[in-house]
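Predict the 3D structure for this chain.
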Amino acid sequence: MMSSGTESVSISALDKGDNLRQQVLTAFPLCQLTEEDLIQNPQFCKLLATLSQYVDNTGLTTVLKRELEKAERELLTQRQTWLHFESIHRLLQEMIQEHSIRKQHGGGPAEEEKFYETMEQCLVVAQCIRLLENSSTPGQDQCPVLGLSAKQVLSHMPSAQDVWQMKQRLPSELQKHLKKKAFNLLAYYQPEWEKESEGLKCVKLSRLSELLESERRREESLTEKNRENALLLQRQAHSYLTELLGCLQVLQSLVLEYRLKAQKELDKKKIEYFEAKCEIGMQKIRAEMLELQLDTYTRDKISAHRKMTEKLNTELKAVKMEKQMVESKLASFEMFGREFEALAEEYSRLRQEIDTKTWALKEFTQHTV
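Done. Predicted structure below.
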């Protein structure tokens, strides 16, 4: 009874240690810790388990985490404000660029030309004023860029009537441009939706943000799941390697204890077996080669090769005789110098033809034999 109680206590202690290690590995995923490190350093494992109650998985305390979240919210607000103005500015620039491209292919109505000229001039003036404001440092006497002031730049603004007309028309034009960009984005996300009606596109466009958000959440959940699977795989690999090392030790002890005494005789038998098998294989290869030769060179083929050889020998003799005649003529006319270059070229051609036919005769002779 006492032994069973002791075993239950040890098992519960092991379970508690395993849970503690799992808690530490889960609480500090960014640390490159393994279960083996925690087993070898139990006090360090307890320290990390205590720290996990006061810090999050990134190592930040609760107070610092709240301050960081507050700063991130403020930064997000500032970023959203900047993105709002920056996106409108870029949209207006895109509208001006598209109008310039259309203008190159053909002019539009005068009202449209006036609208885009006024908008472009206003944007340029506003950008110049912003650069002047950014270049000036408060509390210092510094000459502005090119000696210009904001008042001088504002003097280049269009007339108040043109600006008022431009502002009246700008929301509708901006809405058209945004609608066009939204439809292009929708066609990029789902190309098969491009052929649908405008009303259906508007309905699907209103749901596009939800679809993208759901895909983003799905991607985040898959990333988190992959991280958990990687951690689980790491623990399983460690456990598997530990068991494998134990099995290897047991196997090594068995091999050392029960190894074969007649290993030499067994190796000799194996060598004889492989030698006989190799010899059989060589005999099969020779038989296949002979069979291939018999199938390739039949009696008809051999007689045809002989006829071709006889014909080539006859042609070779005729060419040799012709060569001798040409050589004798060439020797008799060598004294005349360059006037007989044509004869020398003919001699070279015949020599080349003789070499070619000699090679062909040699090849047929080899295959016939």
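Residues 219-259 form one domain.
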